[in-house]
Specification:
Two copies of one chain form a homodimer. Chain A is of the alpha/beta class. Chain A has eleven helices and 14 strands. In chain A, α1 (about 15-25) packs across α10 and α2 packs parallel to α3 (about 100-115).
Chain lengths: ~325, ~325
């Protein structure tokens, strides 16, 4: 490849920190700077050598950055930043609101096309590597069913929901896949599984002083959308225990495709992840796709892409010949 | 897509039959005919409607076939047929002699380029989907190790080796991954594993009348390259038992990538297959890649490709917008 891929990070929460760490693991990539809304002095990079800039000055870096890695949230940051920045830079992001992907894709695509830039959206593990597992699975086993299980892992959205319950000072929620359901799927039984049969939810809660534990537990377990359709357990702990035992962000899950070929051969394809750190893993996927974005842009390609559009070889620093010799 | 993808099958053993069955599962594909060296009357297709032709007359079908699916063996058929047919048709094949892939790629690439055709080589599960798992794994987790385990599954090469031992009338060999080794890898231990520690070999043998069982067992267990480096068990059975219990062709395996991100987060990516029928599954992968070959050729692309070069979306009959909405 010759020259390094020059990356910028937009937003510096857990994901942004993960991207900084992932760039350090990729010798063909370099970090030009971190861009945040509030600018220098408001965040502290892992490496003291990394410059922090105000996001509203990012245009001045147009010639020095090959790809911006957008690390904002899908709820309010990316719907605005994604299309705006795609009109000035090549970008990759981990937009993960599944239902809104089509409209987000269209907005980014229009901006990137108009500017002659390339953006890869919805990169990570779900959407991302799990989406790929679903696509490869159903393309190969046309007659079958696909199952996705998540966890055991910390769910940010559900943890936020717990923390909004009156009487809750702090708390986290783990999504736990039901082993019996996974075994039935792996066995080729092709079961119809209800929401309740696929996952359980496990909450670890620190109460405000004087709060009514039974009322809090009831409020959590009956919360519509988030908990009511699941078997939910609520554990009460103190704050030091929460910090000590529940501050990591593990996650993972399983995509299983079972199908039938020929007369009645049962075939099973399974992809799974077991992650100590969800944001660091998502960040690592983003950096690999940033490499692909830089290459496609250099070829003159423009517009929005997803993981489905990216030839796997574009993710690797190795040459096509090396990949064939070493990995095929 | 509009019109159907018109496919021809070259070679009609287990894999060719699997391709015939797989085409029947893909409504956007149709089978134009089966081509064999010995021609009509020598093979019997699954469907009585399918025409069988002599391979040396295949050129007459140039305008009626979009992609030829080459179902010959990697030892003697494909090294000759692959480049020869790539000079006249778009092709896909399951060339699987890992060490010879670079030279096979070059030969097919030269022929296909000269003819303005497109070929995808080494398609199946290993090489194929397992290769993809290795590539995605190391591209995302740059600091780590990749492990491939095969089985439990019937190995054609090792079964052939058994059958060449004097005193053996018939037999099959199963490659069995060692569970303890898989668990150590999954645990992120990053172990150095010897050949013997990764797989065992299990042989089921029918003796010729009067053959010396102990001599046969010794000959198998000490056979260099095939068995000497493994813990091998040899079971003697009668011919009806062999036919009844060992005529299926199950296979499968595991590709596990473990790596570290950030300070010391351990991350694990695993891809696995459990197949009742190895040839039917390989055939299903071939048909999905034949779809990709037809599309790339229609765009004017030429030369040889591998699974690494194929954007996943090209494998699916669904539109890009449908894939984003349904699978991302």
């Amino acid at each position: 490849m010759g020259t390094k891929i020059r990356l910028g990070i937009v937003g510096y929460g857990n994901l942004g920190r993960g991207v900084e760490a992932a760039i350090a693991q990729n010798p063909d990539a370099e970090l030009v700077g971190i861009f945040t809304r509030r600018g220098p002095g408001t965040v502290r990079p892992l490496s003291a050598n990394v410059a922090v800039h105000a996001l509203d000055g990012v245009d001045a870096f147009a010639d020095r950055i090959d790809v911006l890695v957008l690390c904002g949230g899908s709820k309010s940051d990316l719907p605005e930043q994604g299309p705006a920045l795609a009109g000035r830079f090549n970008t990759v992001d981990s937009f993960d609101t599944h239902a809104r992907i089509p409209q987000y894709f269209d907005a980014v695509d229009a901006a990137a096309r108009a500017a002659g830039k390339l953006s890869i959206i919805a990169v990570g593990w779900d959407p991302g590597l799990f989406s790929l597992a679903r696509l490869y699975g159903e393309s190969v086993l046309t007659h079958g069913a696909t199952y996705t299980f998540w966890g055991r892992g910390l769910s940010q959205g559900h943890s936020d929901a717990i923390r909004r319950v009156p009487g809750v000072r702090a708390g986290v929620q783990y999504t736990v896949p039901v082993s019996e359901a996974i075994e039935r799927v792996r066995g080729g039984e092709n079961p119809s599984l209800s929401t309740r049969e696929k996952h359980t939810r496990e909450c670890w809660v620190v109460l405000d002083e004087g709060a009514d534990a039974r009322a809090v537990e009831r409020a959590i377990r009956t919360m519509p959308d988030y908990f009511a359709d699941y078997d939910t357990t609520v554990h009460f702990i103190d704050e030091p225990t929460l910090r000590r035992e529940h501050s990591a962000m593990p996650h993972g899950g399983f995509v299983i495709r079972t199908g039938t070929t020929g007369e009645r051969s049962s075939q099973t394809v399974e992809f799974s992840l077991k992650l100590d750190s969800n944001p660091e893993f998502t960040a690592s996927v983003l950096v690999a796709y940033a490499r692909a974005a830089a290459r496609l842009s250099r070829r003159g390609e423009t517009g929005a892409r997803t993981v489905f559009d990216i030839a796997p070889a574009l993710l690797s620093p190795k040459s096509a010949a090396a990949l064939r010799a070493e990995l095929l």
